[in-house]
Amino acid sequence: MLELEFTTIEAWDEALWARMKPIYHEAFPSGAKSQAILRSMLDRGIGYLHIGVHHGEVVAMAVTGLEGKDAYRILIIDYLAVEQKLRGSGIGAWMLRQLRAWALREHGIKGMLIEAESGTTEPHQLRIQFWQRNGFILTSYVHQYRMVPEPYQAMMLPLDGSTHVPDDGKALFRYINAFHKVAYRKS
Q: Which of 12, 37, 95, 123 is the most buried (most CB within 10 A)?
């Protein structure tokens, strides 16, 4: 695997965003949060940008946020992407390890949570398999948003023995929906 450097960004940096943006738009061509929303998340201290850099070039990125109180705090991975030509090289798993270490050290999280498209297509199944290979547990509940055509399922990686992953996952969408509500809120 490539030699990479991990950085977390807590304040908006236009030049850095310009380097991340191609990977973000390549991985999420539709339905992704706008630059204005992402910037607002950082400006309000409710979101973080993370990058993986190889020889000065951004090759991976993530958008995260925290939800829950103290003993129940979890890291929500809103977006995670690796430059298309480098997918399958282990960089995504490396980013997850970096996110986990950062969130444990800085925020004492109890788990990591994502929502994955709940589809039967090969790309959907490959994404779910990626998360499962990295320890995430797929829950059975299928959530349908009103404004988004595709359904989603929650996947969680518990980080201690006391963190429970609900069997159906419906409860996990309370965390996800609370995060989205704050993220889309105007200042």
A: 95
